[in-house]
Amino acid sequence: MKRFALAGNPNSGKTTLFNALTGSTAHVGNWPGVTVDKREGVYKKGGEPVSIVDLPGIYSLSPYTPEEVISRNYILDERPDLVINIVDATNLERNLYLTTQIMEIDVPMVIALNMIDAVEKAGDKIDAATLEKKIGVPVVAISALKGEGIDKLMQRAADECAKERKGSTVLKGTALFHLINDVRISLEGKGVKAPLFHAVKLVELDEIEVKMHADCVKMVEEFKATFSDDTFGTDFEALVADGRYRYISENFTPALEKKNRDKESASDRADRVLTHKIWGIPIFLVILFAIFHLTFSENFLFLGAALGEDFDPLAGSEHWAGVLFGGGIYSPGVMIFNIWNDIILDFVFGGLSDLIAGAGLSGWATGLICDGIFGGLSAVLSFLPQILILFLFFSILEDSGYMARIAFILDRIFRRFGLSGRAFMPMIMGFGCSVPAMINTRTLADDKERTATVRVIPFFSCGAKLPILTAIAGAIVGQAGVGNADLITYSMYLLGIIVAIASVLIMRNTTMKGDVPPFIMELPAYHAPKFTGLMIHLWDKTKHFVKKAFTIILASTIVIWFLTNFGWDWRMVDEMDKSILASLGQFIQPLFTPLGFGSQLSKWGWVFAVAAITGLIAKEDVVGTFGTLAACLPIMLDTLVDVEVDGGVSAVTAMIANTGITVPALIAFIAFNMLTIPCFAAVATAKAELPSKKAFNMTILFWIVTSYVVAAMVYVIGSWWWTAFLFAAAAVIAGSFIVMHNKLLKGEKV
Ligand code: GDP
Ligand code: MG
After folding, report:
1. Whose CA is nearest to atom 8 of ligand 1?
2. Distance in angstroms (rounded) separating the CA atoms of residues 344 and 451
3. What is the mean pLDDT of residues 719-723?
4. Rounded mean pLDDT of 329-357?
5. How many Å apart are CA 568 and CA 563, to the nearest integer?
6. Higher confidence at residue 569 or residue 309?
7. CA 548, CA 541: separation in Å to the nearest integer?
8. Strands laid side by side in the 82-88 sheet
9. Cα separation, 106 vs 148, whole angstroms
10. Residue 114 in contact with ligand 1 by CB distance below 6 A
11. From 345, 429, 677, 693, which residue has the greatest number of CB atoms within 10 Å?
């Protein structure tokens, strides 16, 4: 099968084109650096199928960043049959810089002039034919997003790949051309493949080339001794870059017709507000709150008190009233949550339970299915709609280009302290799932920055942790009558972000010191997210969630059920307190006393310790465990088979009622689960991505210590507010100590 490689600048639309060609659903993000690894798929629409490889985005073929190394090695060593160089037509000049380098390799290529729709919309014109004539490589205008021009592109590609292509360079007019040519001839004589490309790189004295062809370096050095340019002296790398840019600006202008525009673009105007020095962060916090309010609020229009306790315009219609109103008007997220839980899940699991109960199975089998499996699964599944809604909002923020601005704003604030915007991108991805986010840290060139980033990614609460948050927030509101669910979940997300930033700052100033590499990123233009793209994201998320529910979580609930219903003598217990799980739970329970869910709890207090441990398998298991245990509670009441299936919130409510846990302890419980060792998939990824075994071991320790300390602080401050001053004082002392210590190290006066 023929292989075509997609190469281009970050954010030029490679993945969008890849998806359009292969029908796959790889993640498209409106910020640079989403695709770190190369990815393969098959294009089947043409004659014979072609394998398509999506390479990471790059600005040049120099070996400075991991993406550049991956893409360069792929094109040079794995020799694809053709390179599709995708070029963002709205940024032609910058994108063609890479084109001029790929052209130098002896490989067939076509240029995909992407985002032509955006160019036209802005009122500009780019003439593909003129560009093609100038540059000598086929150019096809396309819109990857709208699927326009793609068949033509593939047609031209198929034609091109049947032909040989010798590399060509745009440096012909420059003072270095003779030298390049001499080096090329010498390399060619030695049988080097793609001699022109290597010759140019050698002239630039690129590190990799110098090592590979040491014998040719002398030619370059000798030439250098006799040469000097007015502007660049003997910096050949700069001379080559200048030569490329000069060529581009002299030759591409005829192809581009810009409409005269003195007005700033809408994107620029939006950015003046959204990335404002002072208002940028508050605006982000407000947007984030709006999202949580839409998803979780039970008092959506802030009218609760005005409407009164008994506000219920649909009184009499039994079902719908409870779904839409409750003293106030519910937010859309809560309405959907209610419909899903009170109507759909209730019907499905209720019906199934009746069926099982009537099937005449033995008592323990009915218990296993109805309490263990249905109890655990329904508790976890009950949160699917809210996960999807939150995820939808995050996808919109990301796809519109807004999240890239957040990285930009944070970079501006934190760069001085050793934390760059590059590191924020994988962190923000962590809101979806830690696994791809950790893989994405490969964009960070510095090992120490990378280690620090991998460690804090789990603090950006992922979709799987949401059930914990929602279930407990809902139960707190319902049971203790404190606060609003949206405020609690929002604050917990912020807590995660704050702990993450604080931890990175501490690490970057103590054990993980290092320079902050420059962060060059142009902000992608804002655009309206594409509906089908969003739906694909949601569908992926749903599939993933359902698959997980019916595999890992299902298996865990079964194990939990057995451990709750059997004693050490392998006989069924008549009271949950005599079960294996209870004795294990009671054993570890005291560990959590400083966090508020340890020895101070009554009777069934061990369930919180157990739930936290099951979270190490998958974070949904925390709530799944509550669901199974809550369904089993009737065991305590001596009725073995009692069919009890309900959502996660009521499971936690039952736990609160039976253990006497306080609100600060519940919040500490959320904090602990959010910050502690993530699920095993994330742990395995961290292990693979971290540079050494030692770094990995320290990471596990870091997660345990951070979660324990922060959760203990939450509990202690929540229970005795004045202790906040003690913690603040300790933080100030520790901070000053670090600053002084670093100054001493640098030999500065304190
Ligand atoms: P990559 O980083 O090169 O893989 O780029 P992506 O495929 O992730 O796309 C970056 C952004 O550009 C996304 O927001 C896409 O929706 C958008 N995009 C891609 N192709 C087009 C296009 O043809 N027209 C427009 N207007 N936007 C596009
Ligand atoms: Mg990509």
Report:
1. 28
2. 44
3. 94
4. 87
5. 9
6. 569
7. 11
8. 39-43, 50-54, 2-8, 82-88, 109-114, 139-141
9. 29
10. yes
11. 429
